[in-house]
Design a protein that fits this description.
single chain, mainly beta, Rieske Iron-sulfur Protein, three-stranded antiparallel sheet, 9 strands, globular, binds FE2/S2 (inorganic) cluster
């Protein structure tokens, strides 16, 4: 991709399909490497992250869409228990403490459609 050109936004879902106070994972069309996006919803606030733990690069979840701790206050990497803040993806406990989940900018359109802008260096 030419420098300065952003990859196209990818439609993920409608806001109503995201549990308020929860999180969902989305595979992206055309990807064969298994990387996916996590979307956290807090009301109309959405936070997107690459689903890849900074510790070993594994997906955070073991079961589909099970990203949060029981109390719903953190994202949890099920491999070694790292905890990440919902609003910044900052690791606050575990082997990658101080690191971050790579952010994925999201767009919430007026009609409720949610789109992701994958990181430029993510390739396609
Ligand atoms: S792979 Fe996530 S904490 Fe080790």
């Amino acid at each position: 991709m030419a420098p300065g050109h952003l990859p196209p936004s990818i439609p993920l879902c409608h806001l109503d399909e995201l549990p308020d106070g929860g999180a969902r994972g989305f595979e992206l069309p055309g990807r064969t490497d298994g990387l996916s996006v996590i979307v956290v919803r807090q009301g109309r606030q959405l936070h997107g992250y690459v689903n890849s733990c900074p510790h070993l690069g594994t997906p955070l979840e073991i079961f589909p869409d099970k990203f949060l701790t029981r109390d719903g206050r953190h994202l949890l990497c099920h491999t070694h228990g790292a905890l990440f803040t919902l609003d910044r993806g900052a690791c606050v406990a575990g082997p990658c403490k101080g690191d971050h989940l790579p952010p994925v900018p999201l767009e919430l359109r007026e009609d409720g459609q949610v789109l992701a802008q994958p990181p430029e260096d993510w390739g396609s």
